[in-house]
Every structure is written in structure tokens, then in C-alpha cells.
Amino acid sequence: QVQLVESGGGLVQAGGSLRLSCAASGRTFSSYTMGWFRQAPGKEREFVAAIRWSGGSTYYANSLKGRFTISRDSAKNTVALQMNSLKPEDTAVYYCAAARAIGYYGPSEYSSYDYWGQGTQVTVSS
Known about the structure:
mainly beta, seven-stranded mixed beta sheet, four-stranded antiparallel beta sheet, 49% strand
């Protein structure tokens, strides 16, 4: 049974940093793509970043490039999202997701992912 457990969320002031972590268990993820999405109140879930476990290719939402960095630690089976220069508009619940195979619409597509974590709240105060 696949489990994705996010941690690292919290309250931070604008301009600060947070590092989210996603602990993955239940199978071998070497062929998976791991993603981070976020959902703010009243808004749709949106793509943040993704990484292919094998090879480490990364993908980012254009609006977040340069501030957010995704990485994976194969030894620990974790995926991290480093978030810098945070803004109040980054406030959202952040979700970790795992995709067995990325389909036609690519790693930014919500429906490409098979497994989801419960989410971790990130609140950025102004």
C-alpha cells in the first residue's frame, strides 16, 4: 500500500523559507514521477513542481521557477520542496503525489498522479 506523508509546513513571514518533505513508502518508486501540488482556499489545485525519480529531471510551474526547488533522496525515499522568498500568495495546502507513468499531458497534470498525500498547510503572513 502506497503511503505519502508530507511534513514541514507551518507559519512563516513573507520573505522566509520552508522546506517540505514527503516520505514515500509501500513500493519501489524508482520508475515514478513525484510531484508537489498546492491548493489555496477557494481555488483549484495547481501544479508546483515534479521530479522523475530515475534520472532526476525536474519540472516547475513557470511562476515558481527560481524560488522553489524540488529534490529527492533515494536512500531515504523522500522528496523535498525547498521554498524560498515566500509570499502571502503561496499560502495553501501542499500535497505530495506519485505517478506510475506520466501521460500525454505531462507531469503538471493533476490526473497524471495515482497517489496523494494528505497535505501540509503552509501559511505565509505579510
